[in-house]
Amino acid sequence: MPEQLYLTRFLNAHFAGPVDALLRAFHQAPVYPEAPISNAVAMELLTVVVLLAYFLVVRMTLSVEKPGAFQQVAEMTHEFVSEQADSIISHGFQRFVPYLTVLFLFILLANLLGLVPGLESPTANPVVPLGLAIVTFVYYHLHGIRSNKAAYVKQFLGPVWWLAPLMFLIEVVSHCARVLSLTVRLYANMFAGDLVTLAFFSLIPVGIPLIFMGLHLMVAAIQAYVFMLLATIYLALAVSHEH
């Protein structure tokens, strides 16, 4: 039985049966039927709940005359992501801002959970960054096809027709490598940050770990930004039109 956080134990105590039945319906028998919900899944659910609560509070307290703190943070986040998307994607960037904003906030909050006692960063588990990378991979390809239709394939063929088969193979490998790059970059940084912070807490429980917690906070913000920035660049390349 793997070590479980308090929230994970609570979820398994109340929802292990339905989750186990759902997994078996998809022919995915859990290794531990009595605990099919892992710490990473529990932390992801917590992240989603917190974000939903945040969005609801922002929506319910919207005010033009007296914007509250939550509204101001939401506006700052929206402006920040919009500026990045405008500078990279340019024309038609508005339709991508919601996805990029949610992606940024989800990764940022998931990264910061590791600083809370009794919780851990779900992004320190490779499955979570992999899922985010795959969703981003599918998202930008779908919008590439939507924007360019059949001409989207030309991006994979290159300018020289007799090199098209080789270029197509190289481009396919390159796009698949993007998934690996997004996954490893986020996972490795968050796993290392959690490990270093835990190590210094166990060795010197007072004072020094605060420095590494500050570094962890900075790394969490940077990695959320880098993931969002790369997703924006991939979108810009996918939806660009040949002139």
Q: What characteristics describe this protein?
A:
243 residues; mainly alpha
What value does the average pLDDT take? Answer: 88
* SS class: mainly alpha
- Radius of gyration, CA atoms, in whole angstroms: 21 Å
- Gap between N and C termini, in Å? 58 Å
Helix content: over 70%
Tally of DSSP helical segments: 7
Order of helices and strands: HHHHHHH
Beta fraction of the residues? under 5%
Largest sheet: none
The count of DSSP E runs of length 2 or more, i.e. the number of strands, is: 0
Shape: globular
The tally of domains stands at 1
Low-confidence stretches at least 5 residues in length (pLDDT < 50)?
none
Describe the structure in brief:
With 243 residues, this protein is an all-alpha fold. The protein is built from seven helices and no strands.
